[in-house]
Amino acid sequence: MSADTFAPSLPAAAELSADAAVVGAGPAGLAAALELARGGLDVLLLDEQAEPGGQYYRRPGPEVLDAVGDHRPEGGRLVARVRAAGVRVLSGHTVWGVDDDRRTLLAASPGGAALRVRARWVVAATGAYERSVPFPGWQLPGVVTPGLAQHMSAEGVRLGRRAVVAGSGPFLLPVACALLERGVRVAAVAEAGRPYTPGPAALGALRFPARLAELASYAARLARHGVRLHQDTVVARAHGADRVEAATLVRFSDPGEVVARHDVDLLCVGYGFRPQADLAQLLGCAVDRDPATGDTVPRLTPAGRASVPHVYVVGEAAGAAGAPTALARGRAAALDILAASGRAPDRGERRRLAVRMASLARFTRLTAALYPAPAELVPALARRLPGSALVCRCECVTAGAVRGAAAAAGGSDVPAVKGGTRAGMGLCQARECGPALEALRADGPGTGAVPARVPLRPLPLAAVLGPAPGEDA
Amino acid sequence: MTPRTAAAQVEVTVDGRPVLVRPGTSVAAALLEQGRWDFRVDPVSGRDRGPYCGMGVCLECEVTVDGRAHVRSCLERVRAGMRIDTAAGEDA
User: Fold this and answer.
1) A47 and A91 Cβ atoms separated by less than 8 Å
2) How does pLDDT run across A326-342, given as a tens digit for each residue?
3) CATH 3.90.930.50 fits B10-91, yes or no
4) Domain region containing A384
5) Using an 8 Å Cβ cutoff, are A93 and A47 in contact?
6) Which of A172-181, A337-346, A385-394 is least confident?
């Protein structure tokens, strides 16, 4: 580090301004940015990945697409339209905080230089991340989220020779198929619930045959490859020394019953997706706890406007509901902003979009009803964790230590449990262990959820202090 | 199914050793394709750690790229001539 960094008066960070700043270039952010730019606003789109697309339309380099194929070409087309509409796209830029005015976004460029972004409207399209629930051995190399398995398969990587895919939710099926396509043998898919023998609650989903047909086609492909689909089954333990070597599967409803033990070099485990609402929280937006998922979700109007009127939250950050919903939410927010900016969009268009969103919401609710509610599933899994299992993988804090802190005075307060154990205070900021921490806290008063903290991502010091003199930000 | 080799491979160095990787992939993908899962050594337990989330959240895949520490390898693209150093490699 140069001595200049400690100069008494630091140079100001580079400033950018726009009518609208959209954070996150996944389906929702892209849809919002496109609509806003078409409506005549000057739009800045910030995204931390190398290429726009988010997780759903994640774009490897063109060389990979040429060689491996593009499994979601519509993503590339949407990105092209966004660029053609004049949106200023800043890839590789991490928005890590909000200034004291609760309005100016603080970002870091790919080189780590500081950037301040001021906009009349802020659209938080920060997406979702996978819900992890710890189990013994989950820190072993070779234990990954289903999302990692899908991304690396899309990049053409064969991640292992033999895999188990486990957890809960519809996403497990396409991930298992993606692994098969790369030549990985999938020993089993383990689903905690019983969604594939649906009860009366699920029958409403039959009104959406096209979407269910997609799920059925994945299930059929797995069956053709002889992949066992275990229901009411969860991973009890990953075995191995320096790399995962085997996985033990047990009944979710009766953990004493071993369903199978598979020798694997890849174990993919995830329990659906959690909205990433931390930027909205830093912007001062009111949030609620979703009773079905236990997740923190921003309080929004149907068009996505938050309690802070210049902030909109769209896509998975507003509640995980899938890509079609994310696209619709992005458009709806943009149309609302355009109306508020006096650029009245076609009222009929807004009405049609509202009808479509209501239909998508119905499908999301019915799909969710097929799978166990995370607010019940996660605590059930956390309660049976052996004391020696790591809960916080960053700080190596065991379930026993977390339970000890939860039993002490103030143990019903998640920040107190974190402070007493360092659980959830590592680099990932409790994004991986948060659901388990929340489940293991004692009943009683206090903060039940992991609060958002600045910086949202660990940063080089330069990004916080501003550029060094003479440096081009 | 192995991907067709369309583009020429590019050379990078991993822990000081030259290796050929496919262009356009993430650094994490390039390392995994080399059979590497030991991206990091956990400072508390001293045990190896590998990539976990693949989307920039867990920070388990951090490596040093061209001397820049704490780069999330799942979000960074490989470039010809790139120098990739893992914490596991430093200890070896």
Assistant:
1) yes
2) 999 999 999 999 999 99
3) no
4) 374-440
5) yes
6) A337-346
CA dihedral B33, B37, B38, B39 (to 10 degrees): 60
pTM (2 decimals)? 0.92
Residues of A in contact with B63 (CB under 8 A): none
A62 touches chain B (CB under 8 A): yes
Angle CA(B68)–CA(B24)–CA(A89) in degrees, nearest 5? 75
pLDDT digits (tens, 9 = 90+) for B44-76: 889 999 999 999 999 999 999 999 999 999 999
The H-or-E segment that residue A415 falls in is helix A414-421
CATH of residue A246's domain is: 3.50.50.60
- Cα distance between residue B78 and residue B92, in whole Å: 23
Asked whether the beta carbons of residue A394 and residue B59 sit closer than 8 angstroms, the reply is yes
Q: Residue A137: its chain B contacts at CB < 8 A?
A: none
CA-based nearest residue in chain A for residue B61: A141
Domain boundary among A369, A387, A410: A369
pLDDT digits (tens, 9 = 90+) for A402-457: 999 999 888 888 999 998 899 998 888 899 999 999 999 888 888 888 888 878 88
- The amino acid at A335: L
pLDDT band at A385 (very low <50, low <70, confident <90, very high): very high
Nearby residues of A41 by Cβ (< 8 Å), 6 or more positions away: A18, A19, A20, A121, A337, A338, A341, A343
Of A230, A248, A270, the residue at which a domain comes to its end is A270
CB–CB contact B26 A68 (8 Å) = no
Q: A398 near A387, Cβ under 8 Å?
A: yes
Domain ranges (residues) in chain B: 10-91
